[in-house]
Amino acid sequence: MAAYRDPGSLSPMLAATLGGLLATWVTFTPCFLWIFVGAPYIEKLRGNKGLAGALGAITAAVVGVILNLSIWFALHTLFKETIPVRSFGLSFDLPIFSSIDVAALVLAVAAATAIFRFNLGMLTVLAGSCVAGVALRLTGLI
């Protein structure tokens, strides 16, 4: 988006494409590098009790971060408005229940049902959700 909005001497679409490719590269390359370079050593390190404890703590932290992001994205997808609550050491967004996005809720429930009840694959559900979202947008329902 930044490259599209301020393309410099390039066309906006070319700048956006190059910016998107660069963002993808710098986001995923380090992750894959760590996986491919470090994975063979992780199994060897599991035998070391001190390092196994550290790896367990890192795993718990990663699960916590993923859970936090999941809740944040769900909250801001399902509700159009939230109220920030910052007191007593707590910091969270409280949803305004009257601002619920019914279309997003229906899509989320349908996707969860497809995955957990009908055991459909993630890519199938993602593609179906994309098609349903585009169809809802084109029909003017959202």
Provide tags for this entry.
single chain; 142 residues; mainly alpha; two-stranded antiparallel ribbon; 5 helices; 71% helix; extended
Structure explained in plain terms:
The two termini are 22 Å apart. With 142 residues, this protein is mainly α. It has helices at residues 2-5, 12-45, 49-78, 102-116, 122-139, and strands at residues 82-87, 90-95. It contains five helices and two strands. The longest helix is centred in the N-terminal third of the chain and has 34 residues, at 12-45. Strand 1 and strand 2 (90-95) form a beta hairpin. Strands 1-2 form a two-stranded antiparallel ribbon.
Strand and helix layout:
Elements: H1 2-5, H2 12-45, H3 49-78, E1 82-87, E2 90-95, H4 102-116, H5 122-139
Antiparallel strand pairs: 1-2
β-strand percent reads 5-15%
Gyration radius from CA atoms, angstroms:
21 Å
Q: Based on Cα principal axes, name the global outline.
A: extended
Give the % helix. over 70%
Category by helix and strand content: mainly alpha
- Major sheet strand order: 1-2
Task: Compute the number of strand runs.
Answer: 2
The number of helices is: 5
Rounded mean pLDDT score: 90
Instruction: List unreliable stretches of 5+ residues.
Output: none
Sequence of secondary-structure elements: HHHEEHH
Largest sheet: 2 strands, antiparallel
Q: Report how far the terminal alpha carbons are from each other.
A: 22 Å
Question: What does this entry show, briefly?
Answer:
The protein is mainly alpha-helical.
